[in-house]
Write a structure and sequence with these properties.
CATH architecture: Roll
Number of helices: 5
Order of helices and strands: EEEEEHEHHEEEEHEEH
Shape: globular
Largest sheet: 7 strands, antiparallel
Number of domains: 1
Helix content: 10-25%
Distance between the termini: 29 Å
Mean pLDDT: 93
Low-confidence stretches: none
């Protein structure tokens, strides 16, 4: 392992990477607002029991008021095939267009949510219910409980486990999208027995 002798300070900033690239789905039919997709990268798991995550959004975003009013949204995982659409949904606004229609994507129901759609082409999605909103500065932090997770049937192995490599997921590194590369190990591999190593490798 090579030791880095020198580091260069670049100032306090949001240089945490890689981070997930996902598309958030929301809708507000009561106010005549169609399903919308917004690309977010500032999201992460914050609790396991109950399962919860956070999403940070600017007040100026089209989806912000929709989520505050309805209290629900989906987070849709992104495959390499969806990367271009993901970028499009990050630079185009729901104020100006119907992104589902513009991209030829499918809005599907996301039970147990009642209004927020999921992305039919996503490999998996999380149905989320907002628990609180905290004003931070440039962004507000939405804390949400994960009520359900749906994974496309084609990504299940015969033993019932999920084949994430087959999803060809995308990560986001300081303004650039990257395909996730080969696995380097599994959680606990540094202390796993040879038998456990073989079992995981055969999987």
């Amino acid at each position: 392992m090579e030791k880095n002798d020198e580091f260069r300070a670049i100032g306090p900033c949001t240089y945490l990477c890689p981070i997930p690239a996902v598309m958030l789905g929301c809708a507000d039919p009561e106010n005549g607002l169609k399903p919308n997709l917004i690309t977010v990268a500032w999201t992460g798991i914050v609790c396991s029991k109950p399962p919860m995550l956070s999403v940070s959004l600017r007040k100026s975003r089209y989806s912000y008021d929709i989520i505050r009013r309805t209290g629900e949204f989906t987070l849709n995982l992104i495959s390499q095939e969806l990367c271009r659409a993901t970028d499009f949904c990050g630079v185009k606004s729901g104020w100006d267009m119907d992104k589902f229609e513009a991209l030829g994507l499918t809005a599907v129901a996301a039970p147990p949510l009642t209004v927020a759609p999921a992305l039919g082409e996503a490999p998996a999605y999380l149905s989320c219910k907002v628990k609180s909103v905290t004003e931070l500065g440039s962004h507000d932090l939405f804390l949400a409980e994960i009520l359900e997770v749906h994974v496309a049937d084609r990504f299940f192995r015969s033993d019932g486990s999920i084949d994430e490599p087959k999803m060809k997921l995308v990560g986001y590194v300081h303004g650039t999208y990257y395909a996730l590369s080969d696995a380097l190990g599994f959680f606990g591999y540094s202390v796993a027995s040879p038998e456990a190593q073989r079992r995981r490798e055969n999987k």
